[in-house]
Write a structure and sequence with these properties.
single chain; 336 residues; alpha/beta; Rossmann fold; four-stranded parallel β-sheet; three-stranded antiparallel β-sheet; 17 helices; globular; sulfotransferase activity; transferase
C-alpha cells in the first residue's frame, strides 16, 4: 500500500511519467502501473498528505463507466431515506443529478485547486465517489483504524469498454478546449488501447482485482458488488449495501416497501426521465450534460458495438491477465 510520503510533489513528478494522448478525453500519465488523468496528480498529493478522513466516511468506488451513477443514487437514497423518503416528490434525486448528490472525490479536489477543505463542511456521513485504484489510496482511508468503508462495483470489461468509448466521444465533443479531441476515435482504436490498459485508471481488470482481493481479505472494510448481479436482483443488493454501510433496513421498512421504493427511485429509466437529467449539466473538470451519464444501463449491450472477434480478443487479454488470481468476471452471486 502506498504511503503519503510517496505522493509528495506530484505536480512536478507528473511531467516526467510516460504520457498517453491517444485516449480521450484526458491526457494520461502512467503511475505505479495505472494510467491516471494528468490533471489529477496534484489532487492525489492532497488526498495523501492533507485530506482528513472521518470514521463515518463511505467511499463509492469503481472503474469509470462501471455503474458509478447508479451506485451513487442507491447509496444516497439509502443513507438519507429517513430525512428524504424515496417516495417524496421533493427528493434530492428528483431535483439534482446523482453526481451532484454524491460528489466525485479526486476531481472535486482538483477543481478546488488542490484544496483539502472542499469536503470539510459536508455533514457526516460523507458519501464520496472515487475512481482511484485501491493501491493508490492513502492508508488513512484503507486502514482498519480509519473506520472508513468502501463499496466497489465492477462490470463486464466489454460493456465497460463500449460505455467508456461512447462517453469519451461525448466528452470530447462537448466544447471543452482542454480536452483531447482526436479527429476520429473508433471503437477499434478504443479496443486496442483498452487491451493495453491505456485508458483512464486502466488496466480495468487490475483495478477490479485489487478491490476484489481486498474484499476477500477484509469483507468488513470493502464490499464488492457486480453490476450484472445488481441488475438481476436490485432489492437484494440494496439491502446488502445498507447492511454494509451501517444503515440496515428494519422489518417495518421492508414491509412498507421502502427498499422497492429506493430501487424504483434510482432505476435508470426513472432517473433518465427526470428533467434535471435531460437538461442539467455537470462540472467535473469539464462541462458535460447530465444526459451523457444515462445511456441504457443494461448488461450485454456491447454486442451492438463490437464484433465477436473483437470480444474474443478482449476476453483473451483479460483471461490471461487474471490467470491465477482466482477472480472471474462471469462469476454469478459470489459477492454475498
Amino acid at each position: 500500500m502506498a504511503t503519503s510520503s510517496n505522493f509528495m510533489d506530484m505536480a512536478k513528478l507528473a511531467p516526467t511519467l510516460p504520457l498517453e494522448r491517444r485516449c480521450p478525453p484526458f491526457p494520461l500519465r502512467q503511475f505505479r502501473g495505472f494510467w491516471m488523468p494528468e490533471g489529477l496528480f496534484p489532487a492525489l498529493e492532497t488526498i495523501h498528505s492533507r485530506f482528513q478522513t472521518r470514521p463515518s466516511d463511505i467511499f463509492l468506488a469503481c472503474f469509470p463507466k462501471s455503474g458509478t451513477t447508479w451506485l451513487k443514487a442507491l447509496g444516497f437514497a439509502t443513507v438519507n431515506r429517513r430525512e428524504h423518503p424515496p417516495s417524496g416528490e421533493d427528493h434530492p434525486l428528483r431535483l439534482h443529478g446523482p453526481h451532484d448528490c454524491v460528489k466525485f472525490f479526486e476531481p472535486s479536489i482538483a477543481a478546488a485547486g488542490g484544496s483539502e477543505d472542499v469536503f470539510a463542511a459536508f455533514p457526516s456521513p460523507r458519501l464520496l465517489s472515487t475512481h482511484i485504484p485501491y493501491s493508490l489510496l492513502p492508508e488513512h482511508i484503507t486502514a482498519d483504524s480509519s473506520g472508513c468503508r468502501i463499496v466497489y462495483v465492477c462490470r463486464d470489461p466489454k460493456d465497460t469498454l463500449v460505455s467508456s468509448w461512447l462517453f469519451s466521444k461525448k466528452a470530447s465533443a462537448a466544447g471543452n478546449v482542454e480536452l483531447l479531441k482526436p479527429a476520429s476515435y473508433t471503437i477499434n482504436e478504443a479496443l486496442e488501447l483498452f487491451c493495453d490498459g491505456r485508458c483512464v485508471t486502466g488496466p480495468q481488470w487490475r483495478h477490479v482485482v485489487e478491490y476484489w482481493e481486498e474484499s476477500q481479505r477484509r469483507p468488513e472494510k470493502v464490499l464488492f458488488l457486480r453490476y450484472e448481479d445488481m441488475l438481476r436482483e436490485p432489492a437484494r443488493n440494496v439491502k446488502k449495501l445498507a447492511d454494509f454501510i451501517g444503515y440496515p433496513f428494519s422489518g417495518e421498512e421492508e414491509a412498507a416497501g421502502v427498499v422497492d421504493a429506493i430501487v424504483e427511485l434510482c432505476s435508470f429509466d426513472h432517473l433518465r426521465s427526470l428533467e434535471v437529467n435531460k437538461t442539467g449539466v455537470l462540472e467535473v473538470g469539464f462541462t458535460i450534460g447530465n444526459k451523457s451519464f444515462f445511456r441504457k444501463g443494461v448488461a450485454g449491450d456491447w454486442i451492438n458495438y463490437i464484433s465477436p472477434e473483437m470480444a474474443a480478443k478482449l476476453d483473451g487479454v483479460v483471461g490471461e491477465a487474471l490467470r491465477g488470481s482466482g477472480f472471474r468476471f462471469d462469476a454469478v452471486g459470489d459477492s454475498t
